Amino acid sequence: MIWFNHMKTTLNLDDELLRRAKRRAQQRGATLTSVVEDGLRAVLAEASAPAYRLQLPVVEGAAPPAVDPADREALYAILDRPQP
């Protein structure tokens, strides 16, 4: 029994996109099939890559200083004072 690892299919592509793909294949000395496969691999690799998730540290502390963040001078005074 013979097993094939390639499947034939029909795609309906935008004419300009197909012309550009053929031109790219010719420039690379490759087949149109390999250009389409490379494009699909790139798109599928992006989709399967895990999304970056930012994890910020949680810092427990005392009550925040009683300062109005809109009062720039008071905020600078809090930031400039020495830490214990």
Secondary structure layout:
Layout (H helix, E strand, L loop, with lengths): L14 H14 L3 H17 L23 H9 L4
Helix pairs in contact: 1-2
3D structure, described in words:
- This protein is mostly helical and 84 residues long.
- The chain has a domain at 15-48.
- The protein is 48% helix and 0% strand.
- It contains three helices and no strands.
- α1 (15-28) crosses α2 (32-48).
- It is rod-shaped, with a radius of gyration of 29 Å.
- The chain starts with 14 loop residues before the first helix and ends with a helix.
- The mean pLDDT is 84.
Number of strand segments: 0
Average pLDDT level? 84
Stretches where pLDDT is under 50 for at least 5 consecutive residues are: none
Distance N terminus to C terminus? 79 Å
Helix content: 40-55%
Total number of helices: 3
Q: What is the makeup of the main sheet? A: none
Roughly how many Å is the radius of gyration?
Answer: 29 Å
Beta-strand level of the residues, as a percent range? under 5%
Helix vs. strand class: mainly alpha
